[in-house]
Amino acid sequence: MTRMRPTGDWDGTRLAHEGFVFSADAQVVERVVPFVLEGFRRDEPVLVVAGERVRWLLAEHLGTDLGRLTVFAAAETWWRGGHGTLQAYDRDLRALRATTPSWRLAAEPTWLAREDGREWSRFEAVANRCYDAMPYYSLCLHDARRLPADVLAAVDRSHPLTWSGTAPAPGPAYEDPAAFLRSVQPAWTARPAHAGVATVTAPVQGRRAISAAVPADRRARLGDVVLATHELLANALRVAAFAELATWMDGDTFVVEVSDGGPGLPDETLGYVPPDPERGSGGMWLAWSLADDAAVRSGPAGTAVRLYFGAPFRP
């Protein structure tokens, strides 16, 4: 019988990110219990955040060892929207990094079964880049009985590791985070002829222009639109003498586009990366978090970012 290696050759120095898809309770027990016990043997903090069924299975099979878990929490209590959830997660990771050399997490993002939770796949993809140097093993649990096929396909594309049956192995469908994001963001179509367009040379000018452009029946979130647009304009005007601000209605969605002729973004995933508290970064993160959706196109000839504010606006 082949000996199971719960974390394979992982040496605890960098992120290991595995997407584990299961369709039976026995598979959860066979994969997660040895993963937890290995962590105990290595004196690593073990965190479990999962749905009710997975928590019940682990409680039944771990017995008194359940009390050795550093965290044993209901996944449902963690969902705060994509940006809110990742920001809280980022805070917890930084706290662990300051106190322990390595740790492991078994997490079941149950919110992926909800329409408003599907955006989490984008944050899973970006985690491979922004947490690459974090010394932990993230075992992400996904129930094939509850999740639709397109969400399960996104799991395969956003996790560099999968389970071979005896050890983690490279995921054959894994994609670079930037490529994955481009494929799941709103389709980038040509700017419509009826769009309002203004040339902006200072953020204050842009704030006036966007304030005037928001339709009368969409004023409930005027502050969100103005602040998000300001952040994009401030970024654009750092790299170019002027930016273009375009607005239009696409069905029930108000679209804001900020474009510049600068050198292009160093990383198209920045809108999904939590701000660095030491550097005070995070303009794109803030803009993305205020909008209902966002998309970016960037290259050596410049950058264009679109923010989408749907109707009705979120309270």
Features of the shown structure:
alpha/beta, Rossmann fold, 315 residues, Heat Shock Protein 90, five-stranded antiparallel sheet
What is the overall pLDDT average?
A: 94
**CATH architecture annotation of the largest domain:** 3-Layer(aba) Sandwich
Number of domains: 2
How is the main sheet built? 5 strands, parallel
Low-confidence stretches: none
- CATH topology group of the largest domain: Rossmann fold
Rg calculated over all Cα atoms: 22 Å
Question: What count of helical segments does DSSP give?
Answer: 9
Question: Order of strands across the widest beta sheet?
Answer: 1-5-4-2-3
Strand segment tally: 12
* Helix vs. strand class: alpha/beta
Pfam family, one: HATPase_c_2
GO molecular function, one term: protein serine/threonine kinase activity
Domain MEDS: 17-160
InterPro entries: Anti-sigma-factor_SerPK, HATPase_C_sf, HATPase_dom, MEDS_domain, RsbA-like_anti_sig
Folded structure, characterized:
Residues 220-308 form the Histidine kinase/HSP90-like ATPase domain. Residues 17-160 form the MEDS domain. The protein folds into two domains: 16-183, Rossmann fold, CATH 3.40.50; 196-309, Histidine kinase-like ATPase, C-terminal domain (Heat Shock Protein 90), CATH 3.30.565.10. The protein contains nine helices and twelve strands. The model has no long low-confidence stretch (mean pLDDT 94). It has helices spanning 25-41, 52-62, 82-97, 120-130, 149-158, 177-184, 203-213, 222-239, 283-290; strands spanning 16-22, 46-50, 71-74, 103-107, 136-143, 161-163, 168-170, 196-200, 243-250, 253-260, 293-299, 302-309. It starts with 15 loop residues before the first strand and ends in a 6-residue tail after the last strand. With 315 residues, it is α/β, with parallel strands linked by helices. Helix 8 (222-239) runs antiparallel to helix 9 (283-290). The strands form three sheets. It has a five-stranded parallel β-sheet with strand order 1-5-4-2-3, sandwiched between helices. A five-stranded antiparallel β-sheet has the order 8-9-10-12-11, covered by helices on one side. A hairpin with a 2-residue loop joins strand 11 and strand 12 (302-309).
